[in-house]
Amino acid sequence: MMIRRKLATPEPGDNIVRRDRLSQRIRFLIDHHPVVTVCASAGGGKTTAVALALRNLDRPVAWLSLDGTEQAPGRLLVYLEAAVEPHVHDAPRAATDALHNGIQVGEAAGLLAESLQGSRLILVCDNVERITDDEESIVVLSALARYLPAAVNLVLISRAGIPLDIGSMSDISRVGELGEEDLAFDAGETAAALRLIGRSDVDVQGVVDNTSGWVAGVLFEGWRTVEVAGRKPNALREYLSANTLRTLSATERAFLLRTSALAEISVADAVALGQTDAARLMARLQSKRLPVTWSKDGTRLTPHPQFRELLAEELIRTEDPETVRRLHQLHAELLVQQGEWEEAVDSLLRLGDAEAAWRHAAVALPDVVARMNFSSAARWLDSLDATSRTPTPGVGIAVLRVSFALEQCQRGIELLERHGYGWLPGPDSPHFEEALLLATWCLWHSGRLEEAHTLAERLPTGCAREAADNLLALADGTSPPFPGYSPTPSATVDGMLMRIGYLRGRLNGLDRPTGPDPRRTVLGAPWVIAGLRATGRLEEAMQMYEVRREAWQPPWLHAFDAVDLMIDLGRGNDARAALERGCRLIAETGSRLYRFFGHLSEAKLYLRLHQDTEAADRALAEAEAGGAAEYAFSRELCQLWRGYSLLLRNHNVEACAELEACVDGMRRGDRRLELATAAAYLAEAYWRVGREDSSDAAAELALSEATAQGSQHLLLSALTDVPAVAVREADASPTRMSRWHELTATLSSQAPLRVAARAPRLVLEEFGEPILTVDGQQSTLRLSKSMELLSYLLGAGQEVSRQELLSSLFDNRNEAAGRNYLRVSLHRLREVLPEDLVPQQDGDRLYFGRPDLVCGTAQVVLDSLVQADHQDGEIRLRSITEALARADRGPYLAPLSSDWVEQRRSEISERVTSGRIEAAKLAFQLSRYREARQLVNDALKVNPYREQAWQLAISLAHASGGDDSVLAVYQRYTARMREFGVAPSAEVRRLVAQLRR
């Protein structure tokens, strides 16, 4: 007789993640209940969960996998006896002998249970659903469960409920239960599962939402768009069909298929779809284990999204088209009755009933747009050819709002061209001003500036009129006062002012629009990103962009925000890819302005990253041919980039002319976004043609504008192009504490800008005692050299040659030993890191395949300080103090002491000390003297020979004390310098003399 035993090992590919949470839960149930039932739908991870929980337990495990043939009289009992026999040698054939002696099968099962006394056995029966219809089999399992002795467990795994007869009510506590919800993957387990099948790119939360954590669903979601390990994209359909649908009766299966249109199935809704026997069928389905969620009272069931998708596909495949259409028609009618207008419209669109869909869409559209569901609204408008239909004011304003939100002015233009202006709401309508403003915006974008002016003149005095005047001023070159954000909620007005405010350089507060309306930040998000970038908050900008990267709208995000960010980070290929994607989106907008603005971005990219003046000039020519000269702000940008192109070719007289016109136009029109950039270029041009006083004035204009707008990042970007401007101004400054000296120091020591776009999976805490964390779990490296190697690679941020590693980290005198040590160190890393986070090798070079997923905190601190150099004021002080707080944990890799570690520790300490001095200066400038004094004292404790720190300490003493305080600090300074063997500097003596006057 062959006994079907199943080893406590999951099927290949199932053991995707060791779920400690679930293992602990199962072990808890085993410790507190003699019988444990694990019931869930096919693919719920039942077998895997139990196998993992029982692995490595100090108890014997007998595993019997059932296949349905056990239903013959007494056969299940015989199989159970054979399964336990290898583990319980003292009680052979207890059950079979009882059967031969005529004892009833239930009593024989009880004898088998009692024979397990003292064995500590865990008996697992898998696939129990295959015998639940057999009364005798249930009697055997019930008796076994009832008579199990202490410290012996029965675990029953099933896709259906198990109707055990335990006995009295007091015995119910003998059974512990694990269900579908317990087995479901959480977000962390889902992420781990997807990574192990090579799908780290999948939206984890989206998968969880789409599968409700159902284990098989998670895996198939990862496989559905790509073949992985031989699985076909339609594997989910095949699996569910074989393991779920085919296990149902024909009437149960038909019920689920014919109600598949319902996201949640209730008896009433099922009856509305023609399922008259709904109550009885739903009661029967409750005993099944399906990929569904039941309400607590059992009156409603919600299929998992993937299961519902399969049901809908099966309905189409198995039913005739007329039946399918009738069911969808009934569903649409039900949705209308329930007031679910949006779903009703989508359902009618699927049925091809455009007229009925339009009637309901006209009712629902304003609410859809008010909830900022612009993508759905746009889909309806396109599917129903809405602009060809005579608009009501409500539908018309919805079309204009969608145009504005998605940056698709063509929608509004088509509406105006087909139906004129007569449909626009009148002065009595609450949408009057908004409609006129949005129509003005559409015309302005499409280049119809005269019509835009005419329409804007119909607006009464107020916020909307001020927004329209500021919008039109970007074209006509005037400079109306910028009103700021309105005190009362107006998503359209504030959304437009955020765009205009950015282009006019009103960066202060752009990230914090006033008022309670969340639509402002939704409509203005791309311009918030643009403002963050302009003020040097690149990491915040990048993180906001990453959240929206996959969205297809609005075009500004991809065509301009992304391009500027990638240019600033020196990522030329990414900048080019973003520009190409943006240009494709621009082509669909109908915006004349965006078309030529794309060419301006292209010119900037060529100049900033490649100094390719020919390609830039071609792009500028295309921009002007497209109408850039007709808008004042774009005409000035043409002059700006052409001026820089001329400087690169040393055509300095022509550059002066272009840049003078640019600066003059920006100042007259009060458009200050790139004024610091233009003034810096003009300072260089003036110097080259011998106009030194004009050069100084232009440089001071650049500095004052950057300070006023908080756009030091833009100024530094310009000075990187023309560094001689900063050097000359610093040389002419009377003190080394001047802003120009700070700028030249930043330019001379500037490291590449690196920002984190997402939370890393691997984090090495390098300050103090090193701690390695992977996916939120602490990992231990058995070799300190592996820690050092990991830190080196994380700090490099790029490919590193084997020879460089050997020279820096290993004994160079014995190359063979060094190479062997390197191999061992890499091996130890591979032992604890997931495959996709292990350093990769390409020939003689090592690198991280996904550098965005790994980080060391030392480099994070250094990168944060570099980024802070591009900021100013409170923002800069906050960035520096946050970075310093991370470094306060202790010295770099405190327990290690190799030559490389000591050198790296010294470099980091020096940079952190400089950061403290910079923070102290900022705090001093902001009159935060106590904070400044603490920072400068901390810096002098680490390095008592820093001249800048002493100068600042003396200035602080004067600000909060008097001559005596100044002299006391000066005395400490001179004592320290004497220890160092140098005389007090002339600059410090001059400062003391000046403060004592």
UniProtKB/TrEMBL annotation:
<dbReference type="Pfam" id="PF25873">
    <property type="entry name" value="WHD_MalT"/>
</dbReference>
<dbReference type="InterPro" id="IPR011990">
    <property type="entry name" value="TPR-like_helical_dom_sf"/>
</dbReference>
<dbReference type="InterPro" id="IPR005158">
    <property type="entry name" value="BTAD"/>
</dbReference>
<dbReference type="InterPro" id="IPR036388">
    <property type="entry name" value="WH-like_DNA-bd_sf"/>
</dbReference>
<dbReference type="GO" id="GO:0006355">
    <property type="term" value="P:regulation of DNA-templated transcription"/>
</dbReference>
<protein>
    <submittedName>
        <fullName>Transcriptional activator domain-containing protein</fullName>
    </submittedName>
</protein>
<dbReference type="Pfam" id="PF03704">
    <property type="entry name" value="BTAD"/>
</dbReference>
<dbReference type="GO" id="GO:0000160">
    <property type="term" value="P:phosphorelay signal transduction system"/>
</dbReference>
<feature type="domain" description="Bacterial transcriptional activator">
    <location>
        <begin position="868"/>
        <end position="996"/>
    </location>
</feature>
<dbReference type="InterPro" id="IPR016032">
    <property type="entry name" value="Sig_transdc_resp-reg_C-effctor"/>
</dbReference>
<dbReference type="InterPro" id="IPR051677">
    <property type="entry name" value="AfsR-DnrI-RedD_regulator"/>
</dbReference>
<dbReference type="InterPro" id="IPR059106">
    <property type="entry name" value="WHD_MalT"/>
</dbReference>
<dbReference type="GO" id="GO:0003677">
    <property type="term" value="F:DNA binding"/>
</dbReference>
<dbReference type="InterPro" id="IPR027417">
    <property type="entry name" value="P-loop_NTPase"/>
</dbReference>
<keyword id="KW-0902">Two-component regulatory system</keyword>
